[in-house]
Fold:
Amino acid sequence: MSEFWLISAPGDKENLQALERMNTVTSKANLSRNSKFTIPDFKVGTLDSLVGLSDELGKLDAFAESLIKRMAQSVVDVMEDSEGKVQENLLANGGVKEKMRCLKLDLTSFVTHFEWDMAKYPAKQPLVSVVDTVAKQLAQIDSDLKSRMAAYNALKTALENLEKRSTGSLLTRSLSDIVSKEDFVLDSEYLVTLLVIVPKASYSRWQNSYESLSDMVVPRSTKLIAEDTEGGLFTVTLFRKVINDFKTKAKESKFMVREFYYDEKEIKREREEMTRLLSDKQQQYGLLLRWLKVNFSEAFIAWIHIKALRVFVESVLRYGLPVNFQAVLLQPHKKSATKRLREVLNSVFRHLDEVAAASTLDASVEIPGLQLSNQDYFPYVYFHIDLGLLD
Structure:
């Protein structure tokens, strides 16, 4: 499963023994894989400041999770035809140890091998400063993501619009890649070549009648130059003075004159624009994908550090000073085991809060002084980590 439970209990002898009982029961029942989750000692400050940080970290946690989900979806959007390879690009840097830095880990491995990055988030700084550093980092990534995706999507839309003009019916599509200079009488004071769309069922009728639709139509001047599923694109040459009359008669006969005048410079410009947009998209694709890979890793790592900060702050608020608690990471083996796993934890740590433990079994029991719904509160500190970022 891509789900983790990050919990903590007081670090005294009684509760360390409770943790051992938890490990024994969950292992024998094959409920979860458990490991210690090491969190450094921070400068605590006042309890008032911790209460404020608790609220701020809750909001930052939600923001970070939303950000990495948007970044994961952006990787899907950018890779388009390579969606099967998306997970290969959603990785995290190996860790803080020198030999691990160059490695790219899958997200599960990063969480299970988590180590606090002292260089990036110095634990000797006040907690408020550490949280502020993480918040500013994520805000910058969020801002960059919005601007980069907006620029890429604008380029993508421009290219799609140009490509749409090169597809579709002969009535609406661009003709720059269909017609050639040789199809037209150009630079004539008297003659002009028109393009006419003729339904497939009417090809013979067109051939037999186009010369008589108007005066001054050049005999044997029609030629089929393109077809789609519905009809064909024919040329016809006539005198300029009868254009309007020819269009009217053609329309009456269910032949549609396509408004088009051959402009070599415009056709060249359109073709160059398509080439440029394709080149720009390819270049931006590489740059954006690299940026997403690097910054997804940064945002994900920051998110797991936020989880560690939340455990620290809530543990101090819950268990008091001096700081003494043990954090544990649980990875449930399967979805069907989570209910039983919760029952085991509530039983093992019932002594920490009898009212809370009872309320998890009896929804009618209210926890005095708490505004949380009962299912969000347990006798132990608990935070959820869900790595199903594309679910």
Notes: Confidence is low (pLDDT under 50) at residues 361-374. The chain has ten helices and ten strands. The two ends are 13 Å apart (CA to CA).
